[in-house]
Amino acid sequence: MLTLEQNVSDFGEIRLLSEILLQDVTGRAGEKNDDCAHLDISGKHLLWSIDPCPTPVASWFGKASAEVWGCYTATINLSDIAASGGTPIGMLVSLELPDDTSINFIRGFQSGLIATLYAAGATLLGGNVKSAKKFGATGTIIGNAGKKRITRLISNNNCVAYLVGNSGNFWTAVIGNYFGWNGLSIDYQASLNTSLCFPRAQIEAGKIIGNLPFELACMDCSDGPANALFQLAQLNSLDIKLLPNPAWPLQSEYIHLLNEHNINIENACYQFGDWQLLCLIPSNECVLFENILHGLPVTKIGYATQGSGTVLHEDGRRLMETSLNQNFSGGYNSIENIEELLSRFMYLPIFR
């Protein structure tokens, strides 16, 4: 009987990594799928990561300038350093350019890249450039680890889940640009478009996290908090129960705009776009955690206890793996237009 060969879409990104790609990765077993590789060299603990620049959603609204591409190339790499509790040192960037790429585009890209790196205290260390049919940018970044070795693992089985960073601003910007702003002030529109076009990694929070006096697990939310919750629950064999109404740091005007277009706040806050950090904190350290990160947007979203790796809403609904932003499984990189984007991530329930 003929057996059809499996392809990557049969696996999805998470399974592909765990069952095949990470099998030959060196390093400590629990660190192989961390946001960064951990390098212990000559008594120093360094962090190293690599990521290609995603196509900005802003491109569908004519807002993906060269500066936006440069910003995203830096941000996706800086976010990995932040999630590992580190301080970024610098980046190498490899560019693939069609022969007819304008010099002004290159200057704009470089401007957005450098501005984002400098704002994070990092520099451009070099890179590569080559001719190609399509534009692409891939960065690799190195940083210093904090005093604490921050990974996605935690031994404590009585934890509280927090998101560090704003939530919901990105998707509010998408909704405003697509449907119209419905009277939202010019200042709010500008702020939301900054979230859409020039996201910032949680560098300040990452530095603090890397020097906390207790263990914690942390993961970058470049693929969305829902994806990060799923992975941390599975990796640590924890059952995470989410609060029914987290105190999302969203302006009431933004919530009104989302409600006008029947967008569930859960989708806007748990899907990708806002570049938060997801942290699992031992329950007895929550007060200290909140006090130390006072002044930064920190949202308590749920509780974790020993279990089988499920993520449940307090009302009993379960986080659906099919709703995750996951490569090779209908994730963002497979989306072809803005209507499909909204259908897939805003109108498909995350919990069922």
Automatic annotation (TrEMBL):
One of its GO terms (biological process) is thiamine biosynthetic process. Keywords: Kinase, Thiamine biosynthesis, Transferase. One of its GO terms (molecular function) is thiamine-phosphate kinase activity. Residues 34-143 form the PurM-like N-terminal domain. InterPro entries: PurM-like_C_sf, PurM-like_N, PurM-like_N_sf, ThiL-like. Signal peptide: none annotated. It comes from Nitrosomonas ureae. This is Thiamine-monophosphate kinase.
